[in-house]
Design goal:
Elements (H helix, E strand, L loop, with lengths): L1 E4 L13 E2 L5 E21 L12 H10 L3 H7 L11 H9 L6 E12 L2 E11 L7 E10 L2 E4 L6 H9 L2 H8 L7 H9 L1 E2 L2 E3 H9 L3 H7 L2 H4 L14 E12 L2 E6 L5 E2 L11 H5 L9 E11 L2 E10 L2 E7 L5 H12 L2 H8 L8 H6 L6 E3 H10 L11
Parallel strand pairs: 1-2, 3-16, 9-10
Antiparallel strand pairs: 1-11, 3-4, 3-10, 4-5, 5-6, 6-7, 8-9, 11-13, 12-13, 13-14, 14-15
Helix pairs in contact: 4-7, 5-6, 11-14
């Protein structure tokens, strides 16, 4: 049995013949979001001297606190994760205490709201104007609503999402999310090329923007990012508008272990499973007849605190797959269909970062956030091109 932990490291196999590979990759999946994007033109937020002046139940409050914090204890209280360390030092705190509060301020420019693991989340874009600095600094915060207030909360592997909602011009984002056809040819082409099953896919959108020529990309970006002479009035051109949309946003699987089995790894009526790690799931698929079940491979994943195992096997001359775990959602079912279809060695080589020339373009389009592979996108493109990839799949 060969096993790879698709989250940076490998773990040993407890039973069967074992072979491990030293490479790994972060596996991600798509989650359909009923998102809300709000663009502002813009909302000015001033520095305050004390936390008692801040309403943390509002997004404006956590942004105000982020700028106003003038000691380490204050900074620490802004983070949901209390182990988070800050780079702010005494010099920074002294500048905040002594600055002119009329000429040093924040302007809230947009909020992207979504949900993750049952929590209300948001990505906030704002600009900071400092006294004596001729340009604005664009900043973004990832925040979470817990215990009736907003906290700063860094969700891992959200690089692509952060780029889209903090680096692009607000008016461009509104066009990308709109159901209406855009008059901007670049935007309309991006929308059409970034859809999966008629839903805008954030990872694909990011990849397509990165592939644009520099002059085309600059037309989409917030001008302050590439032009230091843009001045302080760019955000005054942003629309006051809220748009609700359905998008595909990727998140990291909490755990992913892919295991391949050899011809001796079989299950049959009356067999006693010795594999203590997988005993529960293997026991659940032992045949209740005299027929033999031949294990092919399995993908064990942890998603939103729930554990699932997708196992592929051959039974009565038919290749099947089963999801073991409570109430699998649509994302798990889509992953299961893919795991059933792809050949073991092909999937193992993909997540072990081994190059497969004929699949190079599909793997490229399936790249997730930094060092990640979006298994949902991989499944979509693989199954979409199934007829051309027959040698890589099991029918």
């Amino acid at each position: 049995m060969k096993k790879i932990l698709a989250l940076l490291i490998l773990i040993p196999t407890i039973s069967f013949a074992q072979e491990t590979d030293g490479n790994g990759i972060v596996l991600e999946y798509n989650q359909k979001q009923n998102s809300i994007y709000e663009s502002f033109s813009p909302i000015k937020i001033k520095i305050v001297n004390s936390q008692t002046e801040i309403d943390y139940s509002k997004i404006e409050g956590i942004v105000q606190s982020f700028l106003s914090a003038n000691n380490r204890q204050w900074v620490k209280s802004d983070f949901y994760n209390k182990n988070k360390t800050s780079v702010k030092d005494d010099e920074h705190f002294n500048k905040i205490k002594s600055c002119n509060k009329d000429s040093t301020y924040v302007e809230l420019e947009s909020v992207y709201r979504y949900s993750y693991n049952g929590n209300s989340m948001a990505l906030v874009k704002f600009s900071i104007t400092f006294e004596g600095v001729p340009f604005q600094i664009i900043y973004s915060l990832s925040i979470i609503f817990r215990d009736n207030r907003w906290y700063i909360y860094d969700l891992i592997n959200q690089t692509n999402t952060t780029y889209i909602f903090s680096s692009l011009n607000n008016n461009i984002i509104l066009e990308l999310l709109s159901k209406e056809k855009s008059k901007n040819n670049i935007v309309e082409k991006l929308k059409n090329n970034s859809m999966i099953q008629s839903t805008l896919n954030i990872d694909l959108l990011f990849r397509n923007i990165e592939n644009l020529k520099e002059n085309e990309k600059n037309q989409l970006l917030d001008e302050r990012i590439w032009n230091f002479n843009a001045g302080k009035n760019i955000n005054k051109k942003y629309q006051n508008k809220k748009i609700e949309s359905i998008i595909l946003q990727s998140f990291t699987l909490d755990k992913a272990v892919f295991t391949t089995y050899n011809k001796k790894d079989i299950l049959y009526q009356g067999v006693k499973v010795q594999d203590t790690e997988n005993k529960k799931f293997l026991s659940s698929i032992i045949p209740q007849t005299k027929d033999t079940l031949y294990l092919i491979h399995s993908l064990s994943i942890k998603l939103n605190s729930n554990n699932y195992i997708v196992v592929k096997y051959k039974f009565k001359n038919s290749i099947e797959s089963t999801i073991i775990g409570e109430n699998p959602n649509k994302e798990i079912i889509e992953i299961s269909n893919f795991v059933k279809t792809i050949k073991s060695k092909v999937f193992f080589d993909i997540i072990a970062n081994k190059e497969i020339s004929e699949l190079k373009d599909i793997i490229k389009d399936s790249k997730g956030q930094v060092n990640g592979l979006n298994i949902s996108n991989l499944a979509y493109f693989f199954l979409k091109n199934k007829a051309l990839l027959s040698k890589y799949i099991d029918d």
